[in-house]
Q: What sequence folds into this?
């Protein structure tokens, strides 16, 4: 029964910021429009130029985009010689004036351009889309990493945790949002609106997303949660269409069974850790019966690793696959010394521990292909997270339950035996 | 009849970001908390440290605040020698790695601290308050201008026009917002809730404010507007409590009679120009009968200037005062070459023109003291704004109606005569 | 930019009226619970009894429902002998006391029971569902018409136009509402969410529904509108999936192409007329370019009538079908003297006129079966509606364009010729 | 984190029902407009006539209002002779047709007029205001009780508990609502906005109101609640402006210290009981630490009763006053056999018990005048309410704590002694 007035009234007018029409009645190129924008002093004209530049950019072909990025990268770069001068001056006299001169010279001009572009209504989403294009170009034009560094720096600042809004996604959410959830779901595909409804409407299902106020229609990341009795062993059971929903009182476990990033243009800006922590905090407070927070996660690198060991799932019993997967999670390492499996790196980096490994847990085509149907529960034990994070960060220690440790040992034997049987 | 769902649902959960309790059960100082925060890698602990640091800072005395600012200014400054190195390297090889090294060394560490602090719920308002404290300290510790430069830089980026929300303030707005409007009104004081109501409720009165989504309860700036028939000559008539409100159809003029900034901690970050332009745009579209957009503005420097001319209002007739005020507005110059009067500089810089000058227009104590009761209408003529801005910016030209030009000429004579009469 | 606070704050707490749990831990029958409710004086217990009675009723089989309706019909009827007494007394002395006695005796006790049941949270929707069950029983138990009269009387009062809320349905509406729109669409079936989106999202499509505040998740009636250039001749063109949407400025016509009632339990309580009038009013004010308001309506009785004339569509050219349909609309009469076609009766009763008749206008299976593909535009000409209503009500006059009049005359000839060719 | 979409979207359009302009360009009288409305069959014209009739009525003088009420009372009354006929017919044959004929004749025509009037936007509030006028006329025209009976009957049905919305009033509520709270507060007057704020903003203060969706800006009734540690003994302490607010965890008691009805036109339609019960239920669930629910109530009849006993407060010590007040509450009876004190009747009728009596509990001018500063706590003990209601309803038993029973006995002695001292 809290009053939400101040907030809801605020939003009443957010919608009034209708985008300027972006018809290309301005025949200038994106670069020319940006040059005009940089030198423009009239705020209103600035907004129009910014809108025109963004509207123009959106519609041009990859070559013109590449040209624009090169302009940003080269023409709007810093002048290193000037920085040397101002930094030297500042090292001699740390006066405010010298500091400002140094600061002014050491910030690339493109940063200011990005800020000016952002002033147009709806521009933030356009800049996120621009970074998606930039990442695409980066593959063939690695020197654009300089511009990407600057744009990322700005987006990180603007998408600071303090500006994000957590919001529950329900069957009462706007269809326009729900269709984005369907489109962005990256882990367990949603085929129909009925499948979507089964993940949102039952009393024992939840979905939460982070939003940014400047992009209120576009989720940044979302997590799907199942409330269960005990830790589930199979994703098909979780997603089954003939379950009997639990009431809030019966459930004792919250299962994060899918986490999806939505904005390719925000790649590398991590929201997942914050999202999980916030959802754990909120669910703990809303549903005191929920004591266990686990994931039910894919092991996307397992299939390939099996192949590299010259093993195939077909040769192996379910038991053996679970043992090998446990071994893989604990022992297969990335060149960084961290686990080879990217999902494992994410959750372990957040302070979770490897809790249980299940075979025949994902029988979908994708699940069989990626990881021979094996899945893993990572456990978020609030009391151990800080310690886990520290040991993982400093020594690469993988926090593991004794059950999985023992499984991994058996996996080591299987692997030895297998290698003996099928020597390369 | 537009649907606002996406937005209003978004806000449903904004309120769920309840601030961490900020009890000082943590006995560390602000500096120690910030040192911990800088080295912390665990996101959750980071939020708690940030909240604790901000909560602590808010409560300490000015001396401890000064010590904290000195820590920011000195310990978290850039290392100029390192910048020289990395800039030199970059000037030789503009590789992405060299660019990143340069960027990393040239950003003061305090910037990153500010971003980390902002992650805590409600932190943005605390950082704005911190800058207010910083501005206060700056008077006696001018070297803090370095830290102020950095904090201002960040706040400018975060309060980018693209993130602001324009919102109408009405008699249906939350009392908690309205009391802030009352408190922040800086031009024509609001004494009672009845006075406030007279500025909000009648059909021919409007009030608009900019808000930032991270501070939804706190207006940044607001403007009060009267819809009138013809250009008004007196603020007392506008504020009178026995007016007969006009209907939307009768009014042909929108009068901006008061603009107030609300956040001392955002001083120097200008919102007024954007606000006026947006309100002109919105009113034009909502009320097509409104053709004229003017201010009814004080002339705050006129009283002092009169004194400096050894003139007093008492000696002068109303007519004479209007002539002298016109002269003052057009001819009294600041060392920058721009008009001496600060309100004139604001509106002329936005592209308005000096339209009419009225004596006996503000008979309040303050109005008499500041400007002998004289007020001025600045006219916002949408077709002339760009040209006005350019001539004013380049040549300091003050766009002026012929009526005021002629008045100013007569003012010049009066001034000559007066000086002859009362030679110093 | 209107403030909607008072309203939206109001709704913040509407949701707090969570229904009592309706577990049947109370073993009493619906009748017993209602008997207890009638004699209960404690408000809180009353709410619980009401909730229990409604929860119970919902779950019992048709036989127990029939028994309950019989109880309402007989046990909670008026006592006619007592009415004769009190009415006689009142005829002799029109004192307030006598009036109250008369009023008390002449209202059936079931009316008060319905009002008591309605006090439970969510009860209004249950009572609407109860009437749906009642209508079903009415077929075999015509004496229940007495109870139906009372329940209808009450629902009419509660669903008074003054309490209804018009609301636009958009692609941003909650999925839970949209699935109801899909389910209730009775004219041109919606098969997929994509089809639904094509009726809501494009700039030239609108959908409006009436809601009652006590049933905020359940539309009562909705109308789908296409904004077009000129009057459309075919529903398939309107619903086509590869149209190019018009902008608001291009469209000059609003086409009501589907009107569906949603609540079987509100049958006989008419909302359609109010809905059309309100939408015409709102669209006129929002989109001044829209000058023409027409329907694109089925002619559901035409197919059967053709058969009765021993004609079949197969025998007839498209031209002939249009002529016969025009003839049918103007000349085939119901025993009431009004047109035989029910959709015609609805729109003519609202003051519309028969504007144009099109063959090959609905090529769907249903459209071909019902009306051999012919459709009709009824025109809502605001200046003529009152006159049309009067002539239609008093004399049964069917307002008709000269084009359709002429078509109908040709239809008469065709019919004559056909009858000559195929004498019965 | 519940989603409120369906509801808030619903309200987005509630505001769109702007009232028709009610300019009296229609020169007909209210009666003539209503006659036209009764015979009008065109829905749109009906809305306009209804709006015109209500607009007209609102502005006429009391004499014309009286004439209108007489028209309702006499011309739109039932025809008793016809009722005798139709009731006789129905007693012979309970056919649906006979039932409908009886129902049609036994409902006064004014009822249907009220329903037609209600269809205009904003009409419900006008009808409530009309009843206020009717009650005023009733004093001199008692025969209007017939019309009042009908209007009350309808309003009771429309303001059924199932349609009311409970809503918390906070310092974030719209000023337009808050000014109504201030105006309607009938128990402990609110003088300034600061006083109002002290009742809304502190963490240990609450205010709840019932609203009807057709009058979203107008509370029907509200209750002010203080959360305290222990049962408070003085209203001045509760309202003090230098209290230290308690946190939610510290408080163990909720004190209903003021309940005010807002709509004179809804007199006799009781909302207080439902409001208290709902608030008790909600607070119990939100704040599990709150175990005790009491009022701090005035004893408005005590002062007059004292006088009637030829006693004055001045003669009596504080102790004696408390004893006499206890005696008064338990023993002074209304002709109905229920307690003489109206506030006592209200709370006892709701199932509360007399818990504690305090002297010097209300030192305000009004409190001293009405009840010599004595106040009483009525205790709402959820486990005893049903039993209390029953004994009170059947036997007039006043549930009383042993402390107050004992106090009342001492009061009896004081009274005896006083009467001995001051024999009449």
A:
């Amino acid at each position: 029964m809290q009053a939400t007035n101040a907030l809801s009234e605020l939003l009443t007018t957010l919608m009034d910021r209708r985008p300027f029409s972006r018809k290309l009645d301005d025949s200038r190129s994106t670069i020319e429009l940006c040059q005009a924008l940089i030198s423009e002093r009239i705020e209103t004209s600035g907004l129009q130029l910014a809108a025109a530049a963004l509207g123009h950019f959106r519609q041009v072909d990859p070559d013109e985009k590449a040209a624009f990025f090169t302009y940003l990268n080269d023409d709007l770069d810093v002048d290193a010689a000037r920085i040397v001068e101002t930094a030297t001056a500042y090292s001699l006299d740390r006066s405010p004036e010298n500091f400002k001169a140094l600061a002014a010279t050491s910030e690339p001009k493109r940063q200011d351009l990005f800020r000016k572009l952002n002033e147009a209504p709806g521009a933030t989403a356009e800049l996120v889309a621009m970074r998606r294009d930039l990442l695409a170009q980066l593959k063939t034009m690695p020197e654009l990493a300089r511009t990407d560094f600057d744009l990322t720096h700005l987006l990180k600042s603007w998408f600071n945790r303090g500006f994000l809004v957590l919001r529950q996604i329900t069957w009462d959410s706007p269809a326009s949002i729900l269709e984005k959830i369907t489109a962005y779901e990256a882990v367990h595909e949603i085929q129909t609106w009925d499948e979507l409804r089964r993940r949102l409407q039952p009393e024992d299902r939840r979905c939460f997303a982070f939003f940014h106020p400047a992009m209120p229609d576009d989720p940044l990341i979302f997590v799907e949660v199942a409330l269960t009795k005990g830790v589930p062993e199979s994703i098909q059971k979780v997603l089954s269409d003939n379950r009997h929903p639990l009431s809030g009182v019966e459930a004792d476990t919250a299962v994060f069974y899918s986490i999806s990033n939505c904005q390719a243009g925000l790649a590398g800006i991590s929201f997942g850790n914050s999202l999980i922590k916030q959802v754990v905090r909120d669910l703990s407070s809303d549903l005191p019966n929920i004591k266990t927070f686990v994931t039910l996660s894919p092991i996307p690198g397992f299939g390939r690793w099996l192949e590299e060991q010259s093993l195939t799932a077909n040769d192996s019993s379910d038991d053996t696959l679970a043992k090998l997967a446990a071994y893989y999670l604990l022992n297969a390492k990335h060149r960084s010394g961290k686990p080879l499996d990217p999902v494992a790196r994410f959750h372990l980096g957040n302070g979770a521990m490897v809790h249980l490994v299940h075979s025949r847990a994902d029988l979908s085509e994708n699940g069989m292909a990626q990881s021979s149907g094996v899945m893993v529960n990572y456990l978020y034990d609030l009391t151990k997270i800080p310690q886990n994070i520290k040991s993982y960060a400093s020594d690469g220690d993988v926090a593991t339950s004794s059950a999985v440790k023992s499984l991994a040992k058996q996996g080591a034997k299987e692997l030895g035996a297998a290698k003996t049987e099928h020597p390369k």
